[in-house]
Amino acid sequence: MIDLDSARAILRQNDQDGHTVPTRGLYPFQWNWDSAITALGWLTFDEARAWEEAHTMFRGQWDNGMLPHILFHGHSESYFPGPEVWGAKAAIPSSSISQPPVWATAINLMLQRSGDAARARAEARALLPGLLGYHEWWYRDRDRDNNGLVQSFHPWESGMDNSPAWDGPLARVPEVKWKYRRRDLGHVDKEERPGRLEYNRYLHLIELQKKNDFDPELISAASPYRVVDIGTVSILHRATRDLIELCRIFGQDAAIPGLESELARTRAAVSACWSGRDRCFLNRDIIADAPLAEVTTGTLLPLFGLLADDEQAGAMAALVEEWLGASNFGLSSTHPASARYEPQRYWRGPVWLHINWMIAEGLRAYGYDDLAERIRSNTRKCIETAGGYYEYFNSETGEGCGGGNFSWTAAVALYWLGR
Ligand code: GLC
User: In angstroms, what is the C-alpha Rg of the chain?
Assistant: First the structure.
């Protein structure tokens, strides 16, 4: 049995002045996509708090529309790299990259699910300009090749920080030489976290942004790391559909044709990323001008993005079915057949529950209800086996990994498993 009282208690515990920290200690600030998922959890028992979560996030939006991946609302010694390393000059100190844009989807779901329609309409309407600015930013600054496939400038921007999908492009990035102290290893076993070498490279990319004045043209020209992350492309695509719906509801018709043409461009371009052999859409290394071979849960997200045609969706459903059978707990973030699969290490194998929600939602939309339900019961099994709401779960043992009392895990239980 899943204990939803504890899930609610976790959100209350992690509540900090209008935003929810992912977990105390390890992640003491507001993270972009965590916050969107967490708002869906709040919605089930405290709607006012759910909307507040969104407003707090959008207060940190940059003038150019970018919504940062971290907002540093206060000071904390327990996280590195902090605002001084990022060097961004924003109203609320922040990182200088974004994260998968779940917000328009979350707001649209909150509007539909709200028990207080008048309030929800007022709140969603107030958030609409920020959402529009955010999507414009993605399509203007990050669609570097003008083909509808937005690009990531940092592995952390994918939200799947150390996915083996990024190993190849990251290997090109020089390492910083200066000394620093990682704080994550004070909270979590190093076997469950990314390695030192990767961290040196992550920091190089952060410095590169700062040196190039956060200018997308300069960064694109200078950076050894640019990828098309199919996960982000898919989440953006779905969110843009939701944004169009919001525009319709609130009479913002002028914005719709532009957004629709972005959808059409993405839809046309993404088919070139399809790999019939792998039965999924592959990420792309822009610098090497080549697909990235690794099959991860990110490469299944076109189901959530509604970017697959029926035949592709059928092939992906068959792949998911096999994938579920290939490890004891699913869906493992990296396919168990991969040479880089590690069931306990962060995005290289463990199960992440919000990703399960997205893939199941996608499968349901394509009519694979039974398979979606299997993912849901697998998700429940992770929480039951681990006996708590962990950051992620070992895909072989079901053990809880990373941080405990984790907001988005509790939120997924409330919003999805509890229904
Ligand atoms: C890690 C995850 C990222 C998440 C953040 C806070 O960096 O990779 O997806 O947003 O932690 O939970």
Answer: 20
- Give 77's pLDDT tier (boundaries 50, 70, 90): confident
Ligand 1 centroid to residue 318 C-alpha, Å: 29
Above 90 in pLDDT, residue 187? Answer: no
Question: What is the number of structural domains in the chain?
Answer: 1
Q: Residues 6 or more apart from 303 whose CB is under 8 A from it? A: 234, 313, 316, 359, 362, 363, 365, 366
Q: For residue 161, indicate whether it is catalytic.
A: yes
Q: Domain of 161?
A: 4-417
| Pocket test residue of 26, 30, 157, 161 for ligand 1, highest count of atoms within 8 A of CB | 161
Q: Is 381 exposed, middle or buried (0-12, 13-18, 19+ CB in 10 A)?
A: middle
* Closest residue to atom 3 of ligand 1, CA basis: 159
Q: How many helices (H) and strands (E) does the chain have?
A: 15, 11
CA pair distance 298, 280, nearest whole angstrom: 10
Which ligand 1 atom is at minimum distance from the Cα of 347?
8
Q: Which of 294, 342, 391, 399 is catalytic?
A: 391
* Residue 46: active-site member: no
Note if the pTM is more than 0.90. yes
Cα torsion for 192, 195, 196, 198, to the nearest 10°? -130
Distance in Å, CA 160 to ligand 1 centroid: 7
User: Contact at 8 Å (CB) between 147 and 269?
Assistant: yes
* Residue 357, ligand 1, Cβ within 6 A: no
For residue 185, give the CATH number of its domain. 1.50.10.10
Report the greatest alpha carbon distance in the chain: 55
